[in-house]
Specification:
It is globular and about 55 Å long. The chain folds into two domains: 1-31; 34-167, no CATH class. The termini are far apart. It is of the alpha+beta class. The chain has helices at residues 2-30, 81-85, and strands at 38-46, 55-63, 67-78, 95-107, 118-124, 130-139, 144-153, 161-167. Strands 1-2-3-4 form a four-stranded antiparallel sheet, with no helix packed on it. Strands 5-6-7-8 form a four-stranded antiparallel sheet, with no helix packed on it.
């Protein structure tokens, strides 16, 4: 009887482990695919006597994770000083975006065309409460991808935003891929 109880316990633990692994895999698949930014450069805007760095305007670039041939450039304010150096500063919501066709356009995955667009990039802007987002939209009538950068805040949102549009055009003799929509 004792051996049967141990075997049942082992089977229950194995079932729980399998369900946990499956739940974790499903949760990871549901996370948005976001691009990784690379630094392009920056300029100092305010001298900080204390701390490791001045306030800056930083420029980063990222490729659309689902579409080859499109690169977006974001400029954004970065707070320096002591709080900026240790990651406690809350950066402003100011940001600008410009997206360009930088090669043949190839759709690697289906893109969402829902009203809220699809998030392609996000970055934390304060220790807890603010993030910078980039959402992609598709204008089927104009055959154009539209990228919106915006900032959110847990307590109150931010109306500051910027957009850029990329019309799907040939690259040399290569015709643009057709969007895979979902």
């Amino acid at each position: 009887m004792g051996m049967l109880k141990v075997k049942r316990q082992s089977n229950i633990e194995e079932t729980i482990m399998r369900k946990s692994i499956l739940a974790a895999a499903v949760a990871l698949m549901c996370l948005p695919v976001t691009a990784q930014a690379r630094d392009i450069g920056s300029v100092s805007t305010t001298f900080r006597l204390l701390g490791a760095a001045n306030d800056k305007i930083k420029i980063e670039a990222f490729a659309d994770p689902k579409i080859d041939g499109i690169t977006c450039y974001i400029s954004r304010a970065v707070t320096g000083g002591i709080t900026g150096a240790i990651g406690l500063a809350e950066d402003t919501s100011d940001a600008s975006i410009e997206c360009k066709q930088t090669g043949p356009i190839v759709f690697k995955e289906a893109i969402n065309i829902r009203e809220k667009g699809e998030e392609v990039f996000n970055e934390r802007r304060s220790i807890l409460f603010k993030a910078l987002h980039v959402n992609r939209f598709y204008d089927a009538e104009a055959n154009t991808l539209v990228y919106l950068t915006w900032s959110d805040k847990l307590i109150e949102g931010s109306p500051k935003n910027s957009i850029s549009a990329v019309t799907l055009e040939p690259w040399g003799t290569t015709l643009p891929g057709k969007p895979l929509l979902k």
